[in-house]
Amino acid sequence: MKLRCREGNAALIIREEPGCECNIGRVVTVQGPFKLQTENGPTWLIEPESSEPWTYATYFGDRVVIRTIRFADMIEHPDSWLLPLRPEDELDWLAQNETQKRLITLGKGKLLVQHAFQKADLRRSG
């Protein structure tokens, strides 16, 4: 199972329950450990970074109650609804890794990656 977030990450809320959309765009801290839920996949406990009121949904069978609380601590949120905010050096490494994966896929596992890097070196020296 591949998780987007890690414990301790700062993350951006990118998806929310209907009625709680005002939380989208807020920054939270991901707390661990994650739990595996059947409905939304892995979930994390999150802690909002700001003291703004937090909106959440409570389910009572078929009925949903939307509430706003002033102090939100340790709210559960699906991993897929969070976008981790990582340090730039880690993002650069992830981007390079994805580029290499694409080159290998395009070359069907051949030495296309090596050729791509050799071309880049030739352009720099030439």
Description:
It is a single chain. The chain has helices at 88-106, 112-125; strands spanning 10-13, 27-37, 41-48, 54-60, 63-69, 75-78, 82-85. With 126 residues, it is α+β, with helices and mostly antiparallel strands. Mean pLDDT is 76; it is low at 110-121. Helix content is 26%, strand content 36%. It folds into two domains: 10-85, no CATH class; 88-125, no CATH class.
End-to-end Cα distance = 44 Å
Count of domain modules: 2
Helix content: 25-40%
Q: Strands of the biggest beta sheet: in what spatial order?
A: 6-3-2-1-7
| Secondary-structure element order, N to C | EEEEEEEHH
What would you call the structural class?
alpha+beta
Mean pLDDT over the full residue set: 76
Gross geometry: globular
* Beta strand count: 7
Computed CA radius of gyration, to the nearest angstrom? 20 Å
Unreliable residue stretches:
110-121
Approximately what portion of the residues adopt beta-strand conformation? 35-45%
The main β sheet shows up as: 5 strands, antiparallel
Number of helices: 2
